[in-house]
Amino acid sequence: MTELVLPQHSNALGTAFGGTILAWMDIAAAICAQRHAGCIAVTAAIDDVAFLSPIRVGDIVVLTARVNAVFRTSLEIDVAVYVEDAVRGIRRHCAEALLTFVAIDSTGKPVEVPPLLLETEEDRRRFEEALNRREARLAKRAGTKPPKT
What we know:
By secondary structure, the chain is of the alpha+beta class. 28% of the residues lie in helices and 34% in strands. Strands 1-3-4-5-2 form a five-stranded antiparallel sheet. A hairpin with a 3-residue loop joins strand 3 (60-70) and strand 4. The longest helix has 22 residues, at 121-142.
């Protein structure tokens, strides 16, 4: 996904509002989740948000989203945000986050998500890391300690 940072996206310092960047990240992740699930997917959680470098008015922002893991009805999406220098053809990493989505049907009930094909060692590593995060998140919500890995 590509966006242009306009004055209405910025604060008094001329840098993008974090909330604007988060909204763009949510949209990119939603598109990614819905493409994989084949149905509407809604945001359930946003974790590990990191703003790494300022984004300024006039910057071209490129967002990439990738499915890390699929569970029964949910998906973990990894979103990275870059500023692109179109003249020099380089990108600067500016932000990242992990978002969890739940696939739903037309009545709003969760539905099963097609499995994710883990084709490479990196795919398997991303899945294992996502599984550990999910277990920790669910344990935290339940008020118990996460399992040791």
